[in-house]
């Protein structure tokens, strides 16, 4: 921890908060304080904004190849420091080291992907239908951006936003979650080492999000907001962005259905369920929340899933052989406890787990519930924990209706061996992404995002850079 930056990163320099405030960073496996980092206030946000605005014009003129090479160098540095970054992430967030190493690779890939997209920003040319004017279309950076990232994937959510912003020629202020600021500060140091000019990326760590973000959004100089987090906070930020008509992209909550039909390969379905449910201890917006299993295979599916879940080893993420680390904090664990208790009170049976262990840390065991009532709170709440709730169905139309009966629409999972059914059901699901016979959909080369109250816009893929670019149309008379 001694080499990890703990100050704000503004204008290419490390600095304390203007009022000297700091905030603790806790280890969720022990509850102990790892370190203290600078706790930014309104004055620090203003300094960061000034740095980003000041750097914008020159950065926008930077050659696309130059931006590409900075991202490529940063990708290589991240890959070289996989173990160092993984240990840092596990310390502040809790996930097992194997998962942390996987996230480092995932995070680095966004920089490699957008290093390649930076040199492929294209416009257009043509004669308008009336023949009077030529149309020249160019694409230019939207301008200074505010990027707000969550705690569950602290490195990857940073690179997923920073990568396209750098590639497009935008300057940025990054505000990471207060629970996991260290990964973002380490990322800022890497980008500085890779040659990113001063002021292009500014990082403000803070426990005072409203004091920092609201003036930036209402002030008119920030032209783009990219947010990943809860739907409730997203609504608030959208309202704040409206005053200055700030362009927004939102990756919000999820309530993913996981549908297992009677013709599914149960081995594939259980494997997929383990990934879709247990990735990141279930603390993922893509996590399967509601398991709809055909009544003819529900008992066998539940038995197999409970056996697999019960075999997982729970403990500190740094310990060899651990599969499941702690939840992020006691508030997060308390929510999971309450949701399970409510389901049990309404008649659910616990096949495995369901009891909070004694001792320090924020641990909760992998849990499988069956006979879950449809009015249980966890049916319309993002669980964000290692709990699989199984419900049964008998009819295709019925399960599609129930799967779509939610204000969210981020991702859905469908397991069936019938091609016609697979395509038919996938097309009818109200979701931005569908995993067909797989429990993993996230990939830097694919567009990530949802419909309904799961968000606006897409991140990653060929379209990810579009969120940071504007079109300009130039009319040239035909002579």
TrEMBL record:
Q: What GO molecular function terms would the record report? A: succinate-semialdehyde dehydrogenase (NAD+) activity
Entry's Gene Ontology BP terms: gamma-aminobutyric acid catabolic process
InterPro entries per the UniProt record, alphabetical: Ald_DH/histidinol_DH, Ald_DH_C, Ald_DH_CS_GLU, Ald_DH_N, Aldehyde_DH_dom, Aldehyde_DH_Superfamily
TM regions (residue ranges) = none
Q: Which residues form the active site?
A: 251
- Name the Gene3D superfamilies for this protein: Aldehyde Dehydrogenase, Chain A, domain 1 (3.40.605.10), Aldehyde Dehydrogenase, Chain A, domain 2 (3.40.309.10)
Q: Which UniProt keywords apply?
A: Oxidoreductase
Q: Does the keyword Glycosyltransferase apply?
A: no
Residues in Aldehyde dehydrogenase domain copies: 14-472
Q: What protein family is recorded?
A: Belongs to the aldehyde dehydrogenase family.
Name-wise, this protein is: NAD-dependent succinate-semialdehyde dehydrogenase
């Amino acid at each position: 921890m001694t080499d990890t930056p703990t100050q704000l990163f503004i204008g290419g320099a490390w600095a304390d908060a203007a009022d000297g405030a700091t905030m603790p960073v806790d280890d969720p496996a022990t509850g102990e304080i790892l370190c203290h980092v600078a706790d930014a206030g309104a004055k620090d946000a203003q300094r960061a904004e000034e740095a980003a605005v000041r750097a914008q014009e020159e950065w926008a003129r930077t050659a696309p190849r130059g931006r590409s090479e900075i991202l490529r160098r940063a990708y290589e540095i991240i890959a070289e420091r996989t173990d160092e970054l993984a240990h840092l992430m596990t310390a502040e967030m809790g996930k097992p080291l194997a998962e942390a190493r996987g996230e480092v690779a995932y995070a680095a890939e966004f920089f490699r992907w957008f290093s390649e997209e930076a040199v492929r920003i294209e416009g257009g040319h043509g004669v308008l239908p009336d023949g009077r004017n030529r149309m020249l279309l160019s694409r230019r950076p939207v301008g200074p951006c505010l990027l707000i990232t969550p705690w569950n994937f602290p490195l990857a959510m940073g690179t997923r936003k920073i990568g396209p912003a750098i590639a497009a020629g935008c300057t940025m202020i990054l505000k990471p979650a207060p629970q996991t600021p260290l990964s973002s500060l380490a990322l800022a140091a890497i980008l500085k080492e890779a040659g990113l000019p001063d002021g292009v990326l500014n990082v403000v760590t803070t426990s005072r999000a409203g004091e920092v973000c609201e003036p930036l959004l209402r002030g008119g100089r920030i032209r783009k907001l990219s947010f990943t987090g809860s739907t409730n906070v997203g609504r608030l930020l959208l309202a704040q962005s409206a005053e200055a008509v700030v362009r927004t992209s939102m990756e919000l909550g999820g309530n993913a259905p996981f549908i297992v039909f009677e013709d599914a390969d149960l081995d594939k379905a259980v494997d997929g369920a383990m990934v879709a449910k247990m990735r990141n201890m279930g603390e993922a917006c893509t996590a399967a929340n509601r398991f709809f299993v055909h009544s003819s295979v529900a008992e066998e599916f539940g038995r197999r899933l409970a056996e697999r879940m019960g075999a997982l080893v729970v403990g500190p993420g740094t310990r060899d052989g651990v599969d499941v680390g702690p939840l992020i904090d006691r508030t997060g664990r308390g929510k999971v406890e309450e949701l399970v208790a409510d389901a049990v009170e309404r008649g659910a049976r616990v096949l495995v787990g369901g009891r909070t262990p004694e001792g320090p840390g924020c641990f909760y065991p992998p849990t499988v519930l069956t006979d879950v009532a449809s009015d249980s709170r966890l049916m319309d709440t993002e669980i964000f924990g290692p709990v699989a709730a199984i419900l049964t169905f008998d009819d295709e139309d019925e399960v599609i209706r129930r799967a779509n009966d939610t204000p969210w629409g981020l991702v859905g999972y469908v397991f069936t061996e019938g091609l016609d059914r697979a395509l038919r059901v996938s097309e009818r699901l109200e979701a931005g992404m569908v995993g067909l016979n797989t429990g993993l959909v996230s990939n830097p080369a694919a567009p990530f995002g949802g419909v309904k109250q799961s968000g606006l816009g897409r991140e990653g893929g060929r379209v990810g850079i579009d969120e940071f670019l504007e079109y300009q149309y130039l009319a040239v008379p035909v002579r």
